[in-house]
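Quick question, first post here. What does this chain look like in 3D?
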Amino acid sequence: MRLLQHAKSPNVHNLYRATLKCFFDWCISQGYRTDNPGEGIRTKKGTHKFIDTPVQALDSFIREGFDTTTYVGLRDKAAVLFLIDTGARPNEAWQLRPEDVDLVQGIALLRAETTKTRTPRTVFFSKPTAKLLNTLLGNRPDWWGPDVPIFAASTGSPMTSTEFGHRLRPVTARFGLNLTVYSLRHIFATNFLRGGGSALELQRILGHSNMTMTTRYANLNREDLQEAHRHASPVNALFPEAKRHAPRKLKK
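> Answer (accepted):
Ran it through. C-alpha cells below.
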C-alpha cells in the first residue's frame, strides 16, 4: 500500500486504489487471497479542472487548423466540431455509426451500449456540423460497411481518444491553445451555460445522472454573472431602459 502514500493528488490516489482493487479481485478469483485490501481504502474527493475557453478563441483553430483535402484532416475537423457542438463524451462519439445520425434534423443517437450510464441519449448538432459530417461520410472508402464508425481511423478501425489526442495536441499548440480531447466537452458545457442554456438542460444533454457533476461546469466568471444579472434582475424588468445603458460614473 506504499504506492498510495506517494499519490500526488486525489485523482492519482483514486486511480491507484482502483488498480489495486482490480488486482486483488483477480487474486481472489484465482484463489491466492480471500480478502481484498482495496475494499477498506476510501476514495478521495478529486479535483476537477475545467477548461473555460470562450468559443470565439477557437475560430482560427477551427477554420485553419485542419487539412480537409485529406480524409484524416476532414475527420479530425468534423470530430472537433461534433464534440464542441454536442457535448458528447469522446468515447461515445467514437462509436457512432452512420445510421445513428440524422443530418437533416441535426440529431445523433448515442446507443445505450456506448454511453457511460448505459442509457440511450440524444444529442443535437448545428448545420455547419451536419454539412461537415455529410462531407466526411461522402468520402468514406466504398468497401467500408455500415458498422464502421463515423470517426474511424484511416484503416476503418475505431478511433481512440489516445490516438486523437496525439493528433490534436500539436494543432492546438500551433494556435496558442492548450486543449485535450475531453476539454472539448468542457468547452461545450461552459459556453452552453454562457449562451443562455439552463443547468437542467445541460444535465440532460451531457447525460449526467444528477446535478452534482453538472453544476461543476457552472464556473462562470464575474462578467458572465454580471451580464446574467443585468438580463434577469426583477428591478431591470421594472426599468427596462436600464438594460440598454451602461452604469454612469458618479461625479466627484
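Residues 247-252 have pLDDT under 50 and may be disordered.
The chain is about 45% helix and 5% strand.
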